[in-house]
Design brief:
alpha/beta, 9 helices, 10 strands, six-stranded mixed beta sheet, single chain, 233 residues, globular, two-stranded antiparallel sheet
């Protein structure tokens, strides 16, 4: 059994879903500190052939707060503006209608925290992609592990799920030691995503955008094949 533990991001990029697809249980790390310039509430879409950053409005966002403590500041004006931006950017994309409905469902939800909105964007997307990985919340499932040193908490959560393999995003290579995890009976791997190009209208390809872009331009079978396009190292 394989486990991954990562903060919830709003409509994250394809590599995030490759990680979800690579494991049996995926823990959304929602009770760690919020990162203002991270990807929790921000991402990039394509607009007229150029990348455009979007940001979910928040109330008093602070890195002194946990992710699941940060409240949304979405109002009807912002919601309408964002959906119009999505429509303008992707109305000619082949899968616009079905993906637009998914985005609309997320934004019209009555959740109050960015952690819940991001989690919903992830859960609806994995349903769309037919990924059967189990999603768990660290705040509700593993509250007793809070306060542990960073690597120790990941190890404890992994072992509590009966798993012996933990998979981390590749940017954790400088943070975590395979030897340290092995001392506790857990094998540590890092995922190395491989992102293939695809047709984005008539403009040159832009890589690493939100999963919104991938879903707008690609069929479900193509995306499901791309979910397997990674290496564990």
């Amino acid at each position: 059994m394989k486990v991954a533990i990562v903060q919830p991001y709003i409509f994250p990029y394809l590599g995030y879903f490759q990680l979800i697809n690579a494991v049996d249980a995926f823990v959304l790390y929602d009770d760690v500190h919020f990162i203002k310039k991270g990807w929790i509430h921000r991402n990039r879409i394509l607009n007229d052939g150029k990348e455009l950053m979007f940001s979910i409005p928040l109330k008093k966002a602070s890195q002194n707060k946990l992710i699941n403590e940060i409240e949304l500041a979405i109002d009807q004006k912002w919601r309408k503006s964002f959906l119009l931006s999505i429509e303008h950017s992707y109305k000619k994309a082949p899968f616009f209608n079905i993906v637009y409905q998914l985005i609309e469902k997320v934004l019209n939800s009555e959740v109050e925290k960015i952690s819940d909105l991001a989690t919903l964007s992830i859960s609806l997307t994995i349903d769309y992609m037919e990924i059967d990985t189990k999603l768990l919340l660290s705040s509700s499932e593993f509250e007793k592990t809070r306060g542990r040193e960073r690597a120790n908490r990941l190890i404890e959560i992994t072992k509590s799920l009966g798993a012996k393999t933990y998979v981390n995003p590749q940017n954790g290579k400088e943070l975590y030691s395979k030897l340290e995890f092995a001392k506790h009976g857990v094998e540590l791997f890092f995922i190395e995503p491989k992102l293939e190009s695809y047709k984005q209208g008539k403009k040159p390809f832009v890589s690493g955008l939100s999963i919104i872009d991938v879903m707008m331009y690609n069929s479900r079978p193509f995306i499901k094949e791309q979910l397997k396009n990674y290496q564990l190292i």
